Amino acid sequence: MTIEEMKKELKCFFDNDGKIFQMPTKPKKEVMITAIVADKIDPDKIYAEKEINEFILDQIDFEDYCTIRRNLIDFGFMTREGDRPQYRLATKTPDLTAYGLVID
């Protein structure tokens, strides 16, 4: 499934400005929302925690950026390292077969 296909399937979670206004409750859809956010992350940039939080807040229209940040790590899109956390993109296509999802 491509990112564009995911966006079409999840269009009911996006507002008119293209921001996510609600997190889905079904795990597969939650992974898909996270993949859509991860697709916009600069693969060559190392983010401080404040920067990744601001990046996520630019993508959403609700306050719970922590869930998306945690999902980016838990689902394998990003890594978090150090005492003063640094975040970097690990891959745009992690192994998500446990969720019945493959990103093309």
Describe the structure.
The chain is of the alpha+beta class and 104 residues long. The chain contains four helices and three strands. It has helices at 3-9, 27-38, 49-59, 65-74; strands spanning 46-48, 78-81, 86-89. It has a three-stranded antiparallel sheet. The termini are close together. The mean pLDDT is 94.
Low-confidence stretches: none
Estimate percent helicity.
Answer: 25-40%
Query: How many domains is the backbone divided into?
Result: 1
CATH C-level name = Mainly Alpha
Structural class: alpha+beta
- Gross geometry: globular
In total, the number of strands is 3
The helix count comes to 4
Gist of the model:
With 104 residues, the chain is α+β, with helices and mostly antiparallel strands. It has 4 helices and 3 strands.
Topology:
Layout lengths: L2 H7 L17 H12 L7 E3 H11 L5 H10 L3 E4 L4 E4 L15
Antiparallel strand pairs: 1-3, 2-3
Helix pairs in contact: 3-4
Task: Based on the model shown, name its key terms.
alpha+beta; 104 residues; three-stranded antiparallel β-sheet; Arc Repressor Mutant, subunit A; globular; 4 helices
